[in-house]
Amino acid sequence: MITAQQGVAVTIGYMSPDFTAYPAFALSEEHEALRESVRQLAEDKIAPHAAEVDQEPRYPQEAHDALVKADLHAVHIPEEYGGAGGDALAAVIVIEEVARVCAASSLIPAVNKLGTVPLLLAGSTDLNQRYLPLVASGEAMFSYALSEPEAGSDAAAMRTRAVKDGDSYILNGTKRWITNAGESRFYTVMAVTDPGAGSSGISAFVVEQDDPGFSFGALEHKLGIKGSPTRELYFDNCVIPADRIVGAEGTGFRTALATLDHTRITIAAQALGIAQGALDYALGYVKERKQFGKAIAEFQGIQFMLADMAMKVAAARQLTYAAAARSDRAMAGDPAGDLTFMSSACKCFAADVAMEVTTDAVQLLGGYGYVSDYPVERMMRDAKITQIYEGTNQIQRVVMARQLLK
Hints:
With 406 residues, this protein is of the alpha+beta class. The protein contains ten helices and twelve strands. It has helices at residues 29-55, 61-69, 88-99, 103-122, 125-136, 252-288, 300-331, 339-365, 376-385, 393-405, and strands at 2-5, 8-11, 142-145, 161-165, 168-179, 186-192, 202-208, 214-216, 230-241, 245-246, 290-291, 294-295.
């Protein structure tokens, strides 16, 4: 490419990846209808319990039951396994609309997807037939176990071991920050099978809640998403059948990274929903709150804040939906070479937007925003985790930069 700089022709020998290679998404009538139905369910069955779930705190059983009854708890499971066969955009819409009223409840469909995508990517037909129908029917949930006390952002440094012993594997180690631990019946666990092979010595396994030698730590006391239980997982000579390996030995870390390419988009959806919920509540409040003889919505300073909030939410939505479209193409076999960049970008951007928008919503409510009688302080606390889990936003920027420079 030739460009002019100060009157001199300059040759630029590198061009960044073409992120416009695919057309923009367009919501189908089915997606629009799905949004309407999920929003109605969320407002009727989930929102009334959101404050209580946060304050007690407790698992959002009402949300769980409502989502299962409506077949919205794991819409991504293919029809061949008894699922709804929803695409990535359908999963995003479900998570977004639930998170709009209760972020903790949105982790039910989000973590079901996180735990099962490794099977969809690399599991054998027999393994998938054994587990995915149970998730599709709502009989069981799946969680994902990658992080460890000394292996967070550096996940390849994990120490949990899986040693082959005849027709079994014996697992020993600890996993930390496991979402919905104790509520989920099944867990996709990454463990080292060949310590000398680095990341190529990591394999993936399905562990069941009742496996001998498998136990849970105490509940973590968290800043936000208090209704979603977070615990450590302990493996003390935990014996599992060898046929529960996901893919071939040594492919687990690649499967883990490929999984995150798809599921970071669900965290973007959660962040997007939290931001939209805070914006919606703030809009209603400023129209009713009066100061100096008129609604504060009439003040230009307030209007500028609202405009910035809405602009950022709209941008986050476009980026998240576009990434979801790429996820579908990748699942269908299209290489979709920019999925890694786009999934990191939407997660990073939407999470930052969620933090900014919820903080501004608290500011717009003033003193009322700071107390638990109003939901925006909960939304602000819930938003923070979206900048941290499934890869911190600092790590997402590293991922994006590597994609640009490779």
